[in-house]
C-alpha cells in the first residue's frame, strides 16, 4: 500500500500531473538535481493542493520555486511556524501561495502546499537539491530517484497529522497520466566506464574523448512506477581527495557559508586481520510486519520482502563462528524471539534456527520496533536490523540507538523500494556503521565480516596548512570504519587564504590491533567557485543531521542551532520551511477549492503471494548483485547452471565449517561417492577434511561470481581444516585439484 508522489489536494485527492522532468548533474560522487513537476488545472474552479514526495534523507534541499503562467515565484526559507502563518494569511486574502516543509516524523518525506491555483493555470514546481552518492561494494556510485512512498505505521496520536495519511486511487499502469524524463550528465577525472540502470536508458554518449564526461537519459515514455536507479562505474573510485569551495561573498568571512569549506574523501586501506573465534553475541532483529508481504520492487519478477530477509538471515546464520552466542527477534505490533536468551552457536542450535527461519511469516501486524530494541539493549550485543522502515516515529528509534551507541554495534538494512532512508541511514549514522537499503545480502555479509574482525580505534584528523590558516570540523566524530568504506569529512577553513598557489595536507590516523596506520592527501588551497555552493550545503546538511530529531525529540538548544544553520545555509530542516506568495494577480482568487485526483499505478505489492523456494530467492539475489544489465533475463540459465549448486553446497556446510563426505556433496561436485572416497589421499584421517577441501576448491572454481556470499563460510572451513588436518592440507589440495580437474590457487588455505 505504497503511494506514488504527486500533487494532492487538501481533501487528499490528487491534481492532474502531466509530466516529471529531472536534470541530473553528477560530478564524481556528488549529485546536483533539479526536478520539475508540471501540472495544469483544467477545471473551472480554483484548487489548493499538497505535493508529497519521498527523497533520500541525505538530500540537501536548498531551492524551491514555481513557474505559474510564465511567472517565476522563488520561495524564501523561514522559521516553519512563521512561514505557515504567512501561507495561511495569503490564502485567506486570495493570493497564490506556496509552502514546502519536511515531515515532522521522518527526514525522507516532504510536502508542499500550493494554494489558490486558478482555473486554467499551469504550474511547474521545481526543487533543487544536492546529495552524496552511495559507494557500493562493487565500486559503483549509486543514485536513486525515489518514486515509492510507503505509508508508515501509526502508533501515536501525534503522527495522525503526518502526510503519510494521504490516500490515492489505484489504476492500471497503462492508465497512469504522467511520465518521467531524466537526463544525467556525468563528469569524473577518473574516466567513466559504464552507466547501468533498472530502467531502460539511451546508449551512453561520451562528451569527451578521454571518457571523463558522458550523458545518458531515460527511454521515452517511462512510467514513474518504480524507483529509478543509476549505477555509475568509474575507472577508479578509491583515490583520496580534497575539494575546497569558496564561500559566499556577501556573508561574514568567518561564518558557515562565508568561509571556504573543504570536502575530504578517504578510503582507508585496512589490512585483513583475524579476530577472535569467540566473537561475542549477535542479535538479528527482523521485521515481520504485514508490509513485509509486499514485493521488494513493484515488478512482477521481484521477490517478497520477507523472503529476501529470510534468505539473508539464513546466510548470516551459516556464517557465524563457533563459540559465539546469538538470538533472532521478529517484530511487528508485538515481538517474538527464538530463544529466551541468546544461545551458544552449535550444530544443534544452528539447525534449529535455520528451520525456524524458513518457517517465518510476515504475520505480526504493525511496525513497532522501539519495544524490542529496548529489550535487546538490556544486553551487550552486535545488532543487525532488517526492516522495510514503515515505522511512525523514526526519531524515537534513532535517539535510542544514539543513546546506546557506545555499548552496542548496530547495523541496519532496508528491505525493498520505499524503505525509509531516514530510519536506515539514521541508525547507521548514530551507531557509526554505514549500511544501506539496497543490495542487502552483500552489505549484511560484509557487515558481519567487519563485526568478526577487530575494531579500528583512536581516530584522529590533523591538518598541515600555511601559517594563519586552520580547519574546524563540521562532520561528526568518526567512531568506526569498515574495510572498503568511504569516509567523507567536511571542514571549515578559517583565517586568510594564501594569494599565491599553495597546498595543504590532511592526515587520517587510526589504530588497528595496536598498529598505528595513517592516510595522507595533499590538496590545493585555491578554492573553486560553485554557484550552488554544493560543499557548503552538504556540510550544512551534515550538521543538521547531527542535531535535528524532529520537533518532538530535539532539545531546545539543538533546535536553535538547527534553525540558525538552516536559515544561514538555505538548507531545509524540521524547523524551517520554504514560503512564497504571488500578490501580482489582477484580482484575488475566489470560490471554493476543488479536489482533483492523480492516480497511482497498480503494482504487485497490492497482492500477497509467494515467490517460490528459498533456492530460487537466493538465485534471484545472486543475479541482482551481478553488474550485468541482463541479470534477470539470465536467471533461468543461471538456475540450470552452477548457481543452484552453490546454494546447495552452502546448505550442506556444518556449523563448525566442515562438510561431510556423502552422496549429497558428491552429487553437487559431479562425482560418484565411491570414486571420491577412492581419490582421498588421506584415507586414515577424518574424511570430512577431504570433503571440505573439495568443497572450498569447487566454490572458488564455480562460485567465484558470488564470492561475497561465501567468503565467511570459506574462512570457517579453512580454520577447521587447520585445526583438524593442518599438515595434510597441501596434499589434499593438490589431490582435489587433480580429481576435480580444477585450477585454483591453493593459498586460500594459508592462515
TrEMBL record:
SUPFAM superfamilies linked: vWA-like
Highest taxon in the source lineage: Eukaryota
Pfam family membership, one: VIT
Domain (VIT): residue spans on this chain: 1-131
Domain (VWFA) ranges: 281-452
InterPro entries assigned: VIT (IPR013694), VWF_A (IPR002035), vWFA_dom_sf (IPR036465)
Function as written in the Swiss-Prot or TrEMBL entry: May play a role in tumorigenesis as a tumor suppressor. Altered expression of this protein and disruption of the molecular pathway it is involved in may contribute directly to or modify tumorigenesis.
Descriptive protein name: von Willebrand factor A domain-containing protein 5A
Protein source organism: Cricetulus griseus (Chinese hamster)
Amino acid at each position: 500500500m505504497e503511494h506514488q508522489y504527486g500533487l494532492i489536494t487538501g481533501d487528499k485527492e490528487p491534481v492532474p500531473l502531466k509530466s516529471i522532468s529531472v536534470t541530473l548533474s553528477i560530478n564524481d560522487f556528488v549529485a546536483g538535481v533539479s526536478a520539475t513537476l508540471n501540472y495544469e488545472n483544467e477545471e473551472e474552479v480554483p484548487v489548493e493542493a499538497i505535493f508529497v514526495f519521498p527523497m533520500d534523507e541525505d538530500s540537501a534541499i536548498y531551492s524551491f520555486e514555481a513557474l505559474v503562467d510564465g511567472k517565476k515565484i522563488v520561495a524564501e526559507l523561514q522559521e516553519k511556524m512563521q512561514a505557515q502563518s504567512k501561507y495561511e494569511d495569503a490564502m485567506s486574502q486570495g493570493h497564490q501561495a506556496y509552502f514546502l516543509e519536511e515531515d515532522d516524523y521522518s527526514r525522507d518525506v516532504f510536502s508542499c502546499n500550493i494554494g489558490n491555483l486558478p482555473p486554467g493555470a499551469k504550474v511547474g514546481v521545481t526543487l533543487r537539491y544536492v546529495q552524496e552518492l552511495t559507494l557500493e561494494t562493487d565500486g559503483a556510485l549509486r543514485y536513486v530517484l525515489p518514486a515509492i512512498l510507503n505509508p508508515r505505521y501509526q502508533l501515536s496520536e501525534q503522527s495522525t497529522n503526518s502526510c503519510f495519511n494521504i490516500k490515492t486511487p489505484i489504476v492500471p499502469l497503462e492508465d497512469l497520466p504522467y511520465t518521467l524524463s531524466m537526463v544525467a550528465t556525468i563528469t569524473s577525472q577518473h574516466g567513466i566506464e559504464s552507466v547501468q540502470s533498472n530502467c531502460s536508458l539511451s546508449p551512453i554518449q561520451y562528451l569527451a574523448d578521454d571518457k571523463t564526461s558522458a550523458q545518458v537519459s531515460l527511454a521515452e515514455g517511462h512510467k514513474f512506477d518504480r524507483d529509478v536507479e543509476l549505477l555509475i562505474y568509474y575507472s577508479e573510485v578509491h583515490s583520496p581527495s580534497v575539494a575546497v569551495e569558496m564561500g559566499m561573498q556577501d556573508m561574514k568571512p568567518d561564518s558557515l557559508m562565508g568561509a571556504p569549506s573543504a570536502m575530504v574523501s578517504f578510503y582507508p586501506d585496512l589490512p585483513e586481520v583475524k579476530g577472535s573465534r569467540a566473537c561475542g553475541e549477535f542479535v538479528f532483529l527482523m521485521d515481520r510486519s504485514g508490509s513485509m508481504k509486499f514485493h521488494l520492487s513493484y515488478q512482477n519478477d521481484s521477490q517478497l520482502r520477507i523472503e529476501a530477509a529470510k534468505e539473508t538471515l539464513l546466510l548470516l546464520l551459516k556464517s557465524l563462528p563457533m563459540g559465539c552466542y546469538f538470538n533472532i527477534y521478529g517484530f511487528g505490533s508485538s515481538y517474538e524471539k527464538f530463544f529466551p536468551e541468546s544461545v551458544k552457536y552449535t550444530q544443534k542450535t544452528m539447525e534449529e534456527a535455520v528451520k525456524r527461519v524458513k518457517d517465518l511469516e510476515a504475520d505480526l501486524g504493525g511496525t513497532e520496533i522501539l519495544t524490542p530494541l529496548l529489550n535487546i539493549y538490556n544486553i551487550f550485543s552486535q545488532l543487525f536490523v532488517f526492516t522495510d522502515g514503515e515505522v511512525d516515529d523514526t526519531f524515537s528509534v534513532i535517539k535510542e540507538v544514539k543513546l546506546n551507541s557506545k555499548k552496542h554495534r548496530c547495523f541496519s538494512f532496508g528491505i525493498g523500494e520505499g524503505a525509509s532512508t531516514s530510519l536506515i541511514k539514521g541508525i547507521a549514522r548514530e551507531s557509526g556503521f554505514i549500511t544501506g537499503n539496497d543490495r542487502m545480502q552483500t552489505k549484511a555479509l560484509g557487515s558481519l565480516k567487519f563485526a568478526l574482525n577487530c575494531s579500528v580505534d583512536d581516530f584522529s584528523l590533523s591538518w598541515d596548512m600555511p601559517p594563519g590558516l586552520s580547519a574546524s570540523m563540521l562532520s561528526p566524530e568518526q567512531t568506526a570504519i569498515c574495510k572498503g568504506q568511504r569516509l567523507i569529512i567536511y571542514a571549515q577553513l578559517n583565517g586568510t587564504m594564501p594569494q599565491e598557489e599553495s597546498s595543504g595536507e590532511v592526515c587520517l590516523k587510526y589504530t588497528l590491533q595496536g598498529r598505528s596506520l595513517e592516510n595522507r592527501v595533499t590538496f590545493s588551497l585555491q578554492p573553486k567557485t560553485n554557484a550552488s555552493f554544493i560543499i557548503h550545503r552538504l556540510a550544512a546538511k551534515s550538521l543538521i543531521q547531527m542535531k535535528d530529531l524532529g520537533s518532538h525529540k530535539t532539545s531546545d538548544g539543538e533546535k536553535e542551532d538547527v534553525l540558525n544553520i538552516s536559515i544561514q545555509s538555505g538548507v531545509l530542516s524540521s524547523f524551517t520551511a520554504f514560503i512564497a506568495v504571488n500578490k501580482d494577480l489582477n484580482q484575488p482568487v475566489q470560490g471554493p477549492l476543488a479536489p482533483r485526483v492523480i492516480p497511482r499505478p497498480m503494482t504487485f505489492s497490492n497482492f500477497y503471494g509467494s515467490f517460490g523456494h528459498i533456492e530460487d530467492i537466493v538465485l534471484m539475489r545472486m543475479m541482482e548483485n551481478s553488474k550485468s544489465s541482463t541479470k534477470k533475463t539470465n536467471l533461468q540459465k543461471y538456475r540450470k547452471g552452477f548457481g543452484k549448486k552453490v546454494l546447495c553446497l552452502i546448505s550442506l556446510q556444518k556449523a563448525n565449517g566442515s562438510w561431510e563426505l556423502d552422496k549429497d556433496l558428491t552429487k553437487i561436485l559431479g562425482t560418484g561417492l565411491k570414486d571420491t572416497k577412492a581419490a582421498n589421499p588421506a584415507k586414515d584421517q577424518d574424511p570430512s577434511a577431504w570433503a571440505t577441501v573439495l568443497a572450498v576448491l569447487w566454490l572458488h572454481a564455480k562460485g567465484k561470481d558470488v564470492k561475497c556470499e561465501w567468503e565467511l563460510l570459506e574462512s570457517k572451513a579453512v580454520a577447521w581444516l587447520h585445526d583438524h588436518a593442518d599438515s595434510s592440507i597441501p596434499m589434499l589440495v593438490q589431490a582435489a585439484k587433480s580429481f576435480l580437474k580444477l585450477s585454483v590457487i591453493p593459498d586460500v588455505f594459508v592462515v
